[in-house]
Design brief:
- The protein is of the alpha/beta class.
- It has helices at 15-22, 42-48, 63-71, 90-102, 128-131, 137-146, 169-175, 187-197, 222-243, 248-267, 271-296; strands at 5-11, 29-34, 52-56, 78-82, 86-87, 106-114, 155-157, 165-168, 201-212.
- The protein has two domains: 5-212, Alpha-Beta Complex (Spore Coat Polysaccharide Biosynthesis Protein SpsA, Chain A); 222-296.
- The strands form two sheets. A five-stranded mixed sheet has the order 3-2-1-4-8, sandwiched between helices. Strands 5, 6, 7 and 9 form a four-stranded mixed sheet that branches.
């Protein structure tokens, strides 16, 4: 049993994939926060792995709040925050921890990501601010080509995907974990920004890898799609209003585009695109209501 790493999982209708994940993680303590109040997997989880602390929420409180809740129960030196659709084994987890001894002021250590076909998909990504940078066609082709290149060694990044990421517990408790106002999306960027602002480094290493099974984190229903699309647009607006307000107006301009597309797709009976634009539009409205309340406080 490893005595210095605790793994945190946040679930929401992730029954199928979480059991595959646990098979590789029996040597680690795990804290599982289940955001599905109707979930019935507790007994099955406890029967296959006794090293689990399980908490079921009475409603879906979001990824950030759930992870922050789990932090209260961590007593080990390191936290490995994972999502159910990322698979890692013991060797890769220990290689990830070694990065903290290899470099000074490591804030986050994360693995290379691979898909089910064993193709490198990266873990670092272009910072949202830079994504808004205008590029010509030639520059876009160069950026697209560079984004597919696997680094040959440890890579210092501005931002990485939210999981798997390893952090020192004392660092998280010093600067905070996730901003609870992010239900899901952009909480990882916000965390990376705060770490770098406090002098910490974000490092991806090829010494550790994970398999990322995209698209099956939760069941594909209208409700889950609604949560996904509204949360992304809300979080995008909240992130830019928090750090880079000059970019918010561009996102607001897209709102008029969503509104027009809602009616076009309604007339053409394109159900999927109708939902996509409607839910994004609702995400903008939710942010405006939140902003009004947030600024008063």
């Amino acid at each position: 049993m490893n005595n210095d790493i605790t793994i945190i999982f946040v679930l929401y209708k992730s029954d199928e994939i979480i059991f595959k994940n646990l098979r590789n993680l029996k040597n680690f303590k795990k804290i599982i926060i289940d955001n599905d109040p109707t979930s019935t997997i507790r007994n099955k989880l406890m029967s296959i792995d006794e090293n689990i602390t399980y908490h079921k929420m009475n409603k879906n409180i979001g990824m950030s709040r759930a992870a922050n809740f789990a932090l209260k129960f961590v007593k080990d030196d390191y936290i490995l925050y994972m999502t159910p659709d990322t698979l890692m084994n013991k060797k890769n987890i220990l290689n990830l921890k070694a990065i903290f001894n290899k470099y000074q002021n490591v804030g986050i250590a994360c693995p290379n990501h691979y898909n089910l076909d064993n193709q490198y998909t990266g873990n670092y990504f272009c910072h949202p601010i830079k994504r808004l940078t205008k590029r010509n066609i030639f520059e876009k082709k160069i950026y697209k080509s560079l984004s597919k290149i696997k680094p040959s060694g440890d890579f210092f990044a501005e931002s990485v995907w939210g999981a798997p990421i390893m952090l020192r517990t004392q660092t998280v408790k010093k600067i905070g974990f996730f901003d609870p106002n992010f239900f899901m999306y952009f909480e990882d960027v916000d965390l990376c920004d705060r770490l770098r602002a406090n002098g910490y480094h974000i490092i991806e290493t090829p010494a550790a890898s994970c398999t990322h099974i995209k698209g099956i984190t939760h069941q594909k229903t209208i409700k889950s799609y609604y949560i996904t699309m509204t949360s992304f647009k809300f979080s995008e607006l909240y992130y830019f209003s928090k750090f880079n307000k000059k970019y918010v107006y561009r996102i607001y301009l897209h709102t008029f585009d969503f509104f027009i597309r809602i009616f076009i797709n309604l007339i053409l009976f394109r159900k999927y695109k109708l939902y996509s634009n409607l839910f994004r539009f609702i995400g903008v409205i939710k942010f405006l209501l939140f902003k009004k309340k947030y600024e008063k406080n």
